[in-house]
Amino acid sequence: MDLTRATWRKSTRSNNNGGACVEVADNLPGVVAVRDSKDPTGPALAFTPASWRAFIAPHRPAS
């Protein structure tokens, strides 16, 4: 997958302590890419927009 045109931004779900930071690129047609901000040249995960929405949706506790 070619991510050279991806515009990366830090996820709002990342912490601000310089630790576990995730970057998301959602400007590409049909894909949401995710990578580790500490390793920007490393691997990235790719999700369909629907899968990404399901992943970040608030989870309800089991009853």
TrEMBL record:
Domain DUF397: 6-57
Pfam families in the record: DUF397
Region described as Disordered: 1-20
InterPro entries recorded: DUF397
Name this protein carries in UniProt: DUF397 domain-containing protein
Top-level taxonomic group: Bacteria
